[in-house]
Amino acid sequence: MSAETIHSVIAGLAGEVMEHTGVEASHCYQCGKCSAGCPLSEEMEYPPSYVMRMLQTSDPVLEDKILRSFTIWVCLTCEMCYSRCPMSIDIPKMMDFLREKSLKEGKANHRAKHIIAFHKSFLDSIRITGRLYEIGLLVDYKSRTFKVMQDMSLAPKMFVRGKLNIFPEMIKGRAGVSSIFSKSNKKSK
Amino acid sequence: MADFEPKIVAFVCNWCTYAGADLTGTSRIKYATNVRIIRFPCTGRIDYMLLLKAFDEGADGIIVSGCHPNDCHYTSGNFHARRRWIMFRELCDFVGIDINRVLFSWVSAAEGSKWADVVNTTVTRIRELGPYTEYQKVAKHPIREVTNG
Amino acid sequence: MTLGLYPGCSLKGSSREYTESVLAVAQACGIELVEIEDWNCCGATAAHNLNKELSLALPARILSLAEKQGMKEVVVPCAACYSRLTVTNHELAVHPELKQTITKGNGLDYKGSVEILNIIQMLDKYITPNLEGRIVKPFEHKVACYYGCLLVRPHEILKFDREEDPQSMDELMLKAGATPIDWAFKTECCGAGLSVSRTSSVGRLSGEILKDAADRGAEAVIVACPMCQSNLDMRREAINSYLGEKIDIPVLYVTQVLGLALGIDRKTLGLQRHFVAVNI
Amino acid sequence: MSKIGVFVCHCGENISATVDCAKVAETAAGYDGVVYSIDYKYMCSDPGQSLIKSAIIEKGLTGVVVASCSPRMHEPTFRKACAEAGLNPYMCEMANLREHCSWVHEKGDATTEKAIDLVRILVEKVKKNHSLNAIKVPVTKTALVIGGGIAGIQASLDIANSGHKVILIERDPSIGGHMSQLSETFPTLDCSQCILTPRMVEVAQHENITLYTYAELESLEGFVGNFKAKIRRKSKSLDEKICTGCGQCTTKCPVKKIPSEFNEGLGKRTAIYVPFPQAVPNKPVIDRVNCTYYIKGKCKVCEIVCPTKAIRFDQEDTIVEAEVGAIVVATGFTVKQPDFFPEYGFGKYPDVITGLQFERLASASGPTLGEIRRPSDGKVPEKIVFIACAGSRDPAKGIPYCSKICCMYIAKHAMLYQHKVHGGKSYVFYMDIRAGGKMYEEFVRRAIEDDGVNYIRGRVSRIYEKNGKLIVKGADTLLGAMPVDIDADMVVLATAGIANEGSEELAQKLHTSYDSYHFFSEAHPKLKPVETNTAGIFLAGACQSPKDIPESVAMASGAAVKVACLFSQDELTREPLIAVVNRQAAPVFSSCVGCFLCVSACPYQAIEKEEIKNRTGEVIKTIAKVNPGLCQGCGTCVAFCRTKSIDIQGYTHEEMYSEVMALLNEY
Ligand SMILES: Cc1cc2nc3c(=O)[nH]c(=O)nc-3n(C[C@H](O)[C@H](O)[C@H](O)COP(=O)(O)OP(=O)(O)OC[C@H]3O[C@@H](n4cnc5c(N)ncnc54)[C@H](O)[C@@H]3O)c2cc1C
Ligand SMILES: Cc1cc2nc3c(=O)[nH]c(=O)nc-3n(C[C@H](O)[C@H](O)[C@H](O)COP(=O)(O)OP(=O)(O)OC[C@H]3O[C@@H](n4cnc5c(N)ncnc54)[C@H](O)[C@@H]3O)c2cc1C
Ligand code: SF4
Ligand code: SF4
Ligand code: SF4
Ligand code: SF4
Ligand code: SF4
Ligand code: SF4
Ligand code: SF4
Ligand code: SF4
């Protein structure tokens, strides 16, 4: 059977995952090695192998739970699970897809809002200047999360050690970079 | 063309498809009467000159069937058959034989109902295609040179 | 000998000392590193977390600039950038349709000729073969080489060292006169991606790493990634308070150690910039 | 001129209910060459068969077509009947009117017409048929058994006890294989050595068995019943006939630190050594790679101390040639070794060991005399972890299959541990427990219920050492994949069972096939599990796939019976339905042009090159020649031959073409 015919057979979210990432949930035989090695699994409500099992059920209720889970945001794509999975299942690639989808569908877990805010601030910084502007990032992140005090003790120390630039570095190809942003944002909408 | 009764020759191997067709019988599954089976030791023995001969003598359709890949009684005969099948297709294309008139299939000794399906599908298909007269037109001379060369 | 250099954002900001030491070591060995002109940020974790296409397009711009500027090999000292650039290079190479959307779609042009070297590959290829007799101040300390996650995984794509218990950095340290210890957390994740947004996880993950290194008598942790360095160094207070004990082993870049062994002075190598004082 | 008889059967009503049998017989009577045609109620009954026999005799029939049921059912019956009446059995063919016609069609003209066609096809074929004689090949009634593990031992004893000669060759200095290394055996926990040693001794003493240890197959030629084997007997550097096995040499040899293969590296041996005390034969060999004399040219202590002057430093390998009629391959398996599990630190942490090493620790004859002590410091482990499927069922590591024996030996190991270390804690990380077998599931349950072994469902991700403990990071998939960390003193990996080293080369020497994991391939996974595709070569034991002792023994006895069947005949009779290359008068000799496409097509290496020489011995032509002992009659070569020089008896071109012609051309 060609790949095409396979994923048209797989229903639901697992089918979508297959289509976008090539990761086949049905290949997981629930050995649990990924969950055993995942450095973050104790902070997840569903460790990676559990997510794989939920996908296998094609149950819309469970699929919704995956997209609303904290798990997908806690995953650091450290690749530990993938490197040891006996079935070579690329969980981090799948997690990337699930995060993107969760965000698009407005299902991102509320506990993940700081994580998402950080990623957004990070990308905004690049969108505007082309490079990461660390002070700008921190200020932006704090304004998004109201975590005003967090890390504030670090900034002066960094500054003293010459580790913070006061002014952002602006690249010449800024326009090109922000067009990359607007194009890929449009596509992912 | 409703009353056209096609003549179909089936070249089958002794170990899988012949036995599968026996099972169709023991299971009393009914199928069209148009097929005549010729028994070979193995699909690997089936020489495509024989298929051409069958068309030459007026067959309207042909079934070639043997063991599934890896199940060959003789280890690899059916792989050779498959490889030759590819060559046969090219040859057919070359001499202008409609490849839809030949059905290549795997029917194991346990697939009695599959055999009935294979026969019925082929008969329906050939009925739609109508009697095979073109072959006599294209044939006779060029083929032998082609296959021996 | 001239090689391309992609410093990435961290090396320009919070990890300035990494850049300084990379340049110093390269210079000492007669290698010129030329920065890719007008490079942009690779997007790091944030991009591939939120937007797949962006996560490929940003590195693609960098690669295409490098190619245009005639660079065959580009050194990428930051492990996170190294991973993003290598993955992008690989994805574009194996999926021609994807390459089309990512490059042409964004007005870029990239043939795929650029080869990416992480810092260890660069050192192994161009510097260590010529070290004979140049180690003037062997770094005679017990060190724990910490590779982190992004330098060796996914092996299918990076094809660098072994995924489990890698050795390349250890061998490099041996050459610099250090004694690498055998320890258990070489490739465990330090949590850098959540460094700002979820500091609690970082305390636990980085804590385990530092504790194992300390317990086994390491006098320094050696890294090749600014994320690892800043996590283990800058966040030491948070880590120590998570562990409930005070661990004060410094975290040095491979290039700093090599620089010291080559006799380069501490200031040039940026040792004064560390949060945890480098007292060895 | 052919004289054909057609015999149409009603099969009670099975055929006659839908086919007009009388009409079939009548039509057939009108065919050229048909001199007799009749329909009858039960052709296979005694009266039916008599009908055929008397027709043959009375009408002088040269061919018979029985139009009845499937030839797969009654071809032997009718061919035998023909032979009894003096007609060559291969001049009898069957038209399948029952399975292929009456049972699959409704009553009607079309059905009868088809029946008529089927008869006509075979009438035309029979006219072209040739009398054939069963092929006879002589049999050398000696068997070669390769590999002296339990499977090879059992097969040798069974064949030898049926009165035939056996040559048993074993690569190692002693027979016994893996079973000799085991401590106790599931599911009964009887001592492995205790049940094995008597059989090893029996082999050594059996008058029908010639045992060559330290020997390997060098090459093999020939075919079923008539193989010629060359056996390389590696030099043992001593004269076995003189050596009394006194052991002086092994005690005095100064090279004492070689890791013992028998003890899986957990013990040491000397350069001149007997692998284990119960070895058969109980005589040493010199391991030349490690012997000081062979390395530096000095030492010879063994020669000096030997009371019988048995040492022969300059002894060379010898090649023994043997003619054998059948071969049993019993070369067993091995287990996956270090560096395959970097995440488990195997090879790095001395206390992460294989199951086979655990067997040696648990064995009373082992390096710890049966006490479970960890290799690093000799401490008795208080916590022990067993990891199932280590390498097996792991496509990423290239071994997707289940090794089959490990679930059981893990339960055994955990049980032995619990029996020997009171108060100890044992954990098993598993994915599934595969305990299909008599008393097997009960055995595993006993480990869990009576001995308190802790089974956790999940695969271990990693092991690392911390403060003298091995930290095992697993997960419990039955508790939502919750991470489970255990600080163990010792870890035992149930490493995958894999094909033995050199099995691929051996298979190639034997011209048998092997699977993608290099295990030997059986001829049919269900119905010919001990045969190979090469006639006369059989399989026994774990060389075919990992298996436990009862299965290995059963398979060995099965292979032995196959050999005994072969040897029960003085000559082998085979169906003559095999390929032949045509021969013609000089100067052509054969239409074969010597392209040897057929050689590459034949799956059985049955085609050889034959040189045709003139009277002065000069080669004028090289043509193909089929070895009737090897040809299985598949016909693949026939389809390949472009000059139509090779043909298959019983399915010749002429016969097959006449069938096609007859089918499509009514009279
Ligand atoms: C850890 C462990 C525990 C086990 N516990 C049990 C148990 O409790 N109960 C049970 O029923 N089973 C158990 N088994 C399985 C048992 O070991 C096997 O079933 C059995 O050994 C198979 O016997 P064999 O003769 O087929 O192969 P082997 O025992 O492997 O013997 C093969 C022999 O052939 C020789 N050989 C190999 N290649 C050549 C060659 N080219 N030429 C000549 N000779 C050659 C080898 O040297 C060896 O002597 C266990 C296995 C393992 C790994
Ligand atoms: C649902 C199912 C599916 C299976 N699928 C597979 C499969 O896919 N592949 C596979 O390899 N195996 C399969 N098996 C297993 C397979 O059926 C057995 O391995 C096989 O049938 C065993 O053969 P046997 O001759 O030992 O016993 P049986 O098949 O049971 O034959 C025993 C015979 O002895 C006769 N008999 C019993 N008592 C007496 C008596 N006192 N006197 C005279 N005759 C007697 C019985 O009538 C019977 O004919 C399956 C089994 C089941 C139940
Ligand atoms: S390691 Fe792979 S196969 Fe095992 S549970 Fe995780 S995803 Fe599934
Ligand atoms: S990639 Fe994500 S899921 Fe996989 S081990 Fe790392 S953190 Fe866990
Ligand atoms: S010969 Fe066959 S068809 Fe005829 S009676 Fe016997 S079983 Fe039936
Ligand atoms: S000392 Fe001599 S006789 Fe004794 S075992 Fe050794 S070789 Fe044999
Ligand atoms: S000659 Fe070799 S085998 Fe003999 S005693 Fe010396 S080392 Fe041992
Ligand atoms: S027998 Fe058990 S432990 Fe061994 S591979 Fe199979 S399932 Fe795994
Ligand atoms: S028999 Fe045919 S295929 Fe074989 S060598 Fe002769 S001509 Fe060639
Ligand atoms: S019939 Fe088959 S086995 Fe015999 S020689 Fe031809 S190819 Fe080989």
What's the number of extended β-strand segments of chain B?
Answer: 4
Radius of gyration of chain A: 19 Å
* Share of helix of chain A, binned: 55-70%
- Beta-strand content of chain B: 15-25%
Oligomer: heterotetramer
Could you please say which CATH topology of chain B applies here?
Answer: Rossmann fold
- Spell out the helices and strands of chain B N to C: EHEHEHEHHH
Structural class of chain A: mainly alpha
Extract low-pLDDT stretches of chain B.
Answer: 141-149
Which topology of the largest domain in chain A does CATH recognise?
Answer: Fumarate Reductase Iron-sulfur Protein, Chain B, domain 2
CATH-derived architecture of the largest domain in chain A: Orthogonal Bundle
Shape of chain B: globular
The residue ranges of chain A in which pLDDT falls below 50 over 5 or more consecutive positions are: 1-7
The N- to C-terminal Cα distance of chain B equals: 39 Å
Largest sheet of chain A: none
How many helix segments of chain A?
12
The gross shape of chain A turns out to be elongated
Which pair of chains forms the biggest interface, and how many residues does each contribute? A-C, 59 and 54 residues
Question: Could you give a quick summary of the protein structure above?
Answer:
The complex is a heterotetramer of chains A (189), B (149), C (280) and D (667). Chain B has 149 residues and is α/β, with parallel strands linked by helices.
Tell me what the structure shows.
The complex is a heterotetramer of chains A (189), B (149), C (280) and D (667). Chain A is mostly helical and 189 residues long. Chain A is built from 12 helices and no strands. In chain A, helix 9 (113-129) packs across helix 12 (174-188). The longest helix of chain A is centred in the middle third of the chain and has 17 residues, at 113-129. Residues 1-7 of chain A have low confidence and may be disordered. Chain B is an alpha/beta fold. In chain B, helix 1 crosses helix 4. Chain B starts with 7 loop residues before the first strand and ends with a helix. Chain C has 280 residues and is α/β, with parallel strands linked by helices. Chain C folds into 2 domains: 2-120, Glutathione S-transferase Yfyf (Class Pi), Chain A, domain 2; 136-273, Rossmann fold (3-Layer(aba) Sandwich). Chain C has a 4-stranded parallel sheet with strand order 2-1-3-4. Chain C has a 4-stranded parallel sheet with strand order 6-5-7-8, with helices on both faces. In chain C, helix 4 (52-68) packs across helix 5. Chain C is globular. Chain D has 5 domains: 4-134, Rossmann fold (3-Layer(aba) Sandwich), CATH 3.40.50; 142-234 and 317-332 and 500-571, FAD/NAD(P)-binding domain, CATH 3.50.50; 248-305, no CATH class; 334-498, FAD/NAD(P)-binding domain (3-Layer(bba) Sandwich), CATH 3.50.50; 579-648, Alpha-Beta Plaits, CATH 3.30.70.3270. In chain D, 28% of the residues lie in helices and 25% in strands. Chain D is built from 18 helices and 34 strands. In chain D, the strands form 12 sheets. Chain D has a 5-stranded parallel sheet. In chain D, helix 6 (150-161) packs parallel to helix 15. The longest helix of chain D has 20 residues, at 109-128. The interface between C and D is small, with 9 and 9 residues. One iron/sulfur cluster binds at residues 9, 11, 42-44, 68-69, 74, 98 of chain D. One iron/sulfur cluster (SF4) binds next to helix 8 of chain D.
